[in-house]
Design a protein that fits this description.
This protein is α+β, with helices and mostly antiparallel strands and 526 residues long. It has a single domain, classed as Creatine Kinase, Chain A, domain 2. It is 44% helix and 12% strand. Strands 1, 2, 3, 4, 5, 11 and 12 form a seven-stranded antiparallel beta sheet that branches. A three-stranded antiparallel beta sheet has the order 6-8-7, with helices on one face. The radius of gyration is 23 Å and the shape is globular. The two termini are 37 Å apart.
């Protein structure tokens, strides 16, 4: 017989080891901008080492789009010490006229041609990375690709998976139980993950230059010299303007098991799209994209959450998952938090730990196509008008407003918080709920409402506010100390990245076309 929620809480309370040592990692993206608020045109600073091979400082789509990657930490304080140290080192070595943009939506960009694609050296793998970005530019434009976000990587401890079968009345054990459990977590995140942009979305407004003159059906209002906004929006970053992709809307990715997920991703990888085929792959001797499939590589599949496994050399994400199962999950729906210098707070991490543990612990039935579509619709509605009191969300055939769903979820998460705080002295999870849960009933307390209020109260611009914060945060980050690492540690990381890139470049024996053929032939192997 299936356990109800209170029975699950009771079961887990008898196994407190299930919540010792969550694995956590943060990836934070941020643009380098000048003091006038415009995008930097300079190359990735050499002081940071090589973006291709650096362990904690790299670039994403553009030379100006930095990405910071923490090591895995089982302690939240340690996690933020790593993140602080990376930020501290970066600003110490940032050109004096540059700052880190503290918002998800980009600064003023005059033209898409001002966005310089990230460069990764002369190796085949480095060339492939830049070519992939060239394909993204040609397919979707550069503006969408310089949106910044925060990715949160999370894993539950081995003890949780040891008891998962009994918790869920499943005969599965070992890695099979872990993979099935993570897929259940993913399905529940798809159902209820709209709470993340609702609570933490911080991009209700954008610089008008982001549209680059393109028409939109969204009913924007204006403020300041060039800022447009939606009154009830939470995260325009996650709307049709940002990290969504209409060409992927009918890929029918299935999340009901790891095998069904991998099968649907593999099928999607080789689907053709007429406009990409018409674009061609090579023009005038230059690659314009890696291939003409709907997905050049698996990373192009846009999703708010991903199942992950650390890859071995010459292994695709799907091959790693098929060979060894799911190791952790990656949350991709977090806006950069403009109210803090690191783009994310400890309170947010505490809430994510709590929410993701709940997603893994409660029942998670299979998702039908219709329910999956309803989940997608909920998410889309929340990012554009999540604070609208008239908004209704349907989950598992039940329809409530945001406050109604929030009340129900708060009751469950509050019980889970007590459980996770059982042997703690700081009550970090209950405190997170205390501060965050009122936002469901009082949407003016959400991050999006607060940022929009600051913009409108000052009768200013999104950009001027962001630039003021960027200058303030740069000073704070310069003045703070290192916590775990030192200048010597970063000097070592820099040199190791340089040496490793040289080794990769020296080891190449194939031409780039032959390298791509080998890569995609290998990717087709089960």
């Amino acid at each position: 017989m299936a356990k109800n929620f209170q029975q699950r809480i009771h079961f887990l309370s008898e196994h407190p080891q299930c919540f010792i040592a969550f694995g956590r990692g943060i990836e934070r993206e941020t643009l380098r901008v000048h003091g006038d608020g415009q995008l930097s045109q300079s190359a990735h600073p050499s002081a940071y080492g090589c973006a291709l091979t650096h362990s904690s400082i790299t670039t994403d789509f553009a030379e100006s789009l930095l990405e910071f990657i923490t090591p895995v930490a089982t302690n939240v304080d340690e996690l933020f010490h790593y993140l602080n140290d990376i930020h501290h080192h970066v600003v110490l070595n940032l050109p004096s006229d540059q700052y880190l943009w503290p918002m998800s939506m980009p600064c003023y960009v005059k033209s898409e041609d001002n966005v310089q694609l990230a460069q990764f050296g002369t190796s085949n793998i480095g060339t492939m990375k830049t070519t992939y970005r060239q394909g993204l530019k040609n397919r979707y434009g550069s503006m969408m690709q310089i949106i910044s976000g925060v990715h949160y990587n999370f894993s539950l401890p081995a003890a949780f998976w040891d008891h998962w079968g009994e918790l869920h009345n499943s005969p599965l054990t070992g890695q099979d139980a872990q993979s099935a459990g993570y897929m259940g977590l993913v399905r529940n995140y798809l159902r209820y993950g709209w709470v993340i942009p609702y609570l933490f979305g911080a991009s209700p407004a954008i610089c008008k230059s982001f549209l680059q003159g393109k028409e939109t059906d969204l009913p924007f209002e204006s403020t300041g010299k060039g800022t447009i906004y939606l009154p009830y929006a939470t995260s325009l970053r996650l709307s049709d303007l940002g990290y969504t992709n209409s060409s992927q809307s009918d890929l029918n990715i299935c999340y009901n098991s790891l095998d069904s997920y991998l099968g649907s991703v593999r099928k999607a990888l080789y689907k053709k799209v007429p406009e990409f085929t018409e674009m061609g792959v090579v023009k005038d001797g230059q690659y314009v994209q890696l291939n003409d499939n709907v997905l050049q590589i698996e990373n192009e599949l846009y999703a708010s959450i991903r199942a992950k496994r650390v890859q071995k050399s010459n292994e695709t994400p799907s091959q790693a998952l098929k060979a060894r199962g799911i190791e952790y999950i990656e949350i991709r729906s977090l806006d950069v938090n403009p109210f803090c210098k690191l783009g994310i707070t400890e309170e947010q991490v505490n809430f994510l730990d709590l929410f993701l543990t709940w997603c893994a612990s409660v029942e998670s039935p299979s998702l039908s196509k219709s329910e999956y579509q309803a989940c997608s619709d909920n998410f889309s509605e929340v990012v554009t008008r999540g604070r609208d009191p008239k908004l209704m969300l349907t989950i598992a055939e039940q329809t409530l407003n945001v406050a109604g769903w929030g009340k129900w979820l708060n009751e469950q998460l509050s019980d889970m918080a007590i459980l996770l705080d059982k042997d703690r002295v700081d009550n970090r999870y209950q405190n997170a709920m205390l501060h965050i849960s009122p936002r469901f009933e009082f949407p003016e307390q959400t991050s999006s409402a607060r940022i929009l209020k600051r913009i409108k109260d000052s009768q200013g611009d999104n950009g001027s506010l962001a630039l003021d914060l960027a200058k303030q945060y740069k000073m704070q980050l310069q003045e703070q100390p290192y916590y775990l690492w030192s200048d010597n540690d970063f000097a070592l990381q820099k040199q190791q990245s340089i040496d490793k890139q040289k080794q990769i470049e020296a080891a190449d024996t194939l031409s780039f076309p032959d390298f791509l053929d080998d890569y995609f032939n290998n990717a087709k192997k089960e």
